[in-house]
Amino acid sequence: MNDERQHKSLWTVTTPPRDFPSLPGDLEVEVAIIGGGIAGLTAAWLLKRAGKKVAVLEMHRVLSGQTGQTTAHLTELLDTPYTTLLKDFGEKGAHLAASSSRAAIEQIASLVETLAIDCGFTRVPGYRYAETEAELRELLHEVSAARQAGLLATFTKEVPLPFPVKGALRVEDQAVFHPRQYLLALADRIPGDGCHLFENTKVVDIHDGTPCRVVTEGGTVTAQAVVEATTTPLNRVAMHTKLYPYRTYSVAAPLEGPLEPGQYYDSRDPYHYIRTQQVDGVPYVIVGGEDHKVGSEEDTTSCFAALEAYTRDRFPVRRITHRWSGQVIEPADGLPYIGRNVGSRHVYVATGFSGTGMTFGTLAGMVVSDLILGNENPYAALYDAGRVKPKAGARDFIQENAEVAFRFVADRLSKPDGHHLADVAPGEGKILEVDGRKVAVYREEDGTPHAVSPVCTHLGCHVHWNNAERSWDCPCHGGRFSPTGRVLNGPAVKDLPSRKLPVK
Ligand SMILES: Cc1cc2nc3c(=O)[nH]c(=O)nc-3n(C[C@H](O)[C@H](O)[C@H](O)COP(=O)(O)OP(=O)(O)OC[C@H]3O[C@@H](n4cnc5c(N)ncnc54)[C@H](O)[C@@H]3O)c2cc1C
Ligand code: FES
Which of 7, 152, 243, 478 has the greatest count of CB atoms below 10 A from its CB? Predict the structure, then answer.
């Protein structure tokens, strides 16, 4: 049966799959990198280029995580407004956040040029627009904060959108590209000269030490340093109180009328993110949004419906040709955590990229490779994974962790809706009760039912059914499992165990 996610991105369906081997047994390298997304592949390439022997360990296929599901705006307009960054990190911090995003865009541009990667990399302007007077007032503050942080930002009423807006923050020299074309070109260059890229190689444990030991299902990799580039780290608790998983949705549609190449963002909360891209000669508009806390939306197909309606309402399109969704990880104080893991000597993490993980993932590769190589990096202190900012994001910290605690208790105590096995329709998943114990039941299209434990193997919260992607999603830290319980997304590493099927 096909128990993979349902929706594939425009990037995935327009590039050929790759087939890297899995780890055949024990191995020794200088740096072990867990995760074949933008953060892991960038770190691997920069370290290999500097002469290190690296091994990338990917549990599924490279770029099958959030990087394959991205919309790939390369932007200095961060999810955390510059007004907030100035308040929480000071002028120097806001400046560094802006200049590090610029450095990441330029890092990608330089690799595209030096390696001659054909990925449609194009410089475009970015616009954050206001549709109401209240949004406009906030936007004007953001324009001056962005300028104070060093962005080439201006306010404009000339916004090349096919619907009326009150005005926009315009920022120059942002970029768009085809993320899989770019990153497959890096992935293809990793094997060789003592370096490796392994797929279908799940890391189940990491031991810090001299050397470190990275335990996989196929063997143990020993290394002087380990990079956890797994979207959200595998460690059990320390980082997870500071990371909040959100689901976000995207659609792509061929343009049937003019839309100036660019990036566009509305000012709603959650906001919509829009951009253009030419793929195989077809001009597309790509629209994302409808974000919600993982596991909090009963009917995730309604998020796609809302996004499609938004797209059809505003842009010259007739057919929505691609739909996909994924997760973004929000950091507690508004900036990612990149650097040595808390309490570790040789294990590095790269996480909390929000909706700008193309630049932050690239930056993570730059910062972590510099730390491992012993080079100075101007951004390392700002993104230090062990930093404590008690005031920044304090309200969110309390609310988000209270919600995790609530989910942990409430989902255990709640009674399932009294459904029986016969109520689970083909293609559907439901939580049922068998002999006083909850089970997560999924029925295949051909009618075959499967039952697994609903208790997430990370820290024990109960999973929720995601009907759009047909997966069991954990509301606490974003772990995801296939309908039959296979791990799709960390931080969980163990599958959901099978359970006895209800008799009726
Ligand atoms: C719909 C959507 C739109 C987005 N739009 C944008 C945008 O426009 N601009 C932008 O900058 N960012 C955007 N983002 C965010 C960005 O895509 C992500 O932040 C970024 O791709 C994360 O990269 P990563 O390398 O950290 O993680 P991933 O790409 O998720 O890679 C992590 C990898 O680690 C592997 N892994 C996990 N656990 C293990 C294990 N135990 N053993 C081995 N391997 C493991 C996973 O399989 C995965 O392949 C968007 C995200 C989504 C979902
Ligand atoms: S309890 Fe942490 S991801 Fe499920």
Answer: 478
Q: Which ligand is nearest to the CA of 202?
A: 1
Residue 172 has pLDDT above 70, yes or no: yes
Predicted confidence at residue 408, as pLDDT, reads 63
Asked if 325 and 248 touch (Cβ cutoff 8 Å), the reply is yes
Protein residues with CB under 6 Å of any ligand 2 atom: 456, 458-461, 474, 476-479, 491-492
Q: Peptide bond preceding 16: is omega within 30 degrees of 0, i.e. cis?
A: no
The more confidently predicted of residues 161 and 238 is: 161
* Cα-based distances in Å from 241 to 120, 295, 337, 460: 38, 17, 13, 15
Among 6-20, 333-347, 405-419, 443-457, the least confident range: 405-419
> How far apart (Å, rounded) are the C-alpha atoms in residues 188 and 362?
17
Dist. CA 398 → ligand 2 center (Å): 18
235 vs 332 pLDDT, higher one: 332
Which class for 258: exposed (0-12), middle (13-18), buried (19 or more C-beta within 10 A)?
exposed
Which domains does the chain carry?
10-70+181-240+334-390 (3.50.50.60), 122-175+242-331 (3.30.9.10), 393-504 (2.102.10.10)
| pLDDT for position 419 | 77
Q: What pLDDT score does 447 carry? A: 93
What is the pLDDT averaged over residues 453-467?
Answer: 95
Cα 39 from chain centre = 10
Around ligand 1, the residues with Cβ closer than 6 Å are 34-40, 57-60, 64-67, 69-73, 202-203, 229-231, 234, 248, 250, 273, 288, 325-328, 353, 355-359, 361, 490, 493
